[in-house]
Write a structure and sequence with these properties.
about 140 residues; single chain; globular
Length: about 140
């Protein structure tokens, strides 16, 4: 990822984080499960707890964006944690799509193609590292 892409992700995340986590979780999980109802069984916790897990995961990844390749042990921990919940690489595209939907709604008028492309690239990188960590 380029420095500019990392900057776009981190700066848009700051805007996004101003929204109540449960509202974000409602948007994310509502969209994800509307599009993929069969995934509902993977999410066993309350919306509040699921939202917190989502935000914690994203905070961890975003904090380490500049050094993802040097933090493979942390990526492996996250990949194994989520695999333990049943969230395996085959679900990553659905989660990416729901995340982008949620980010776009949450960021609103400040969302643009450049930010979307940065998030897509970041997600592709994280998904690739998490998939490799599970193999």
């Amino acid at each position: 990822m380029t420095e500019k892409e990392i900057f776009l992700i981190k700066s848009s995340w700051k805007i996004f984080r101003q929204i109540e986590p449960t509202t974000l979780g409602d948007l994310f999980y509502g969209h994800l499960l509307h599009k993929n109802p069969s995934l509902a069984s993977l999410f066993k916790y309350s919306l509040e707890r699921q939202s917190g897990l989502l935000i914690d995961f994203l905070n961890t990844i975003i904090f380490h964006l500049e050094e993802l390749h040097n933090r493979k042990h942390k990526i492996k921990e996250l990949a194994e944690l989520y695999a333990g919940y049943g969230i395996t690489p085959k679900y990553y595209p659905y989660i990416t799509e729901a995340l982008l939907f949620t980010l776009k709604k949450g960021i609103g008028k400040d969302w643009n193609e450049e930010i979307e492309n940065a998030w897509l690239k970041g997600n592709e990188e994280v998904n690739k590292l998490m998939t490799e960590a599970l193999n």
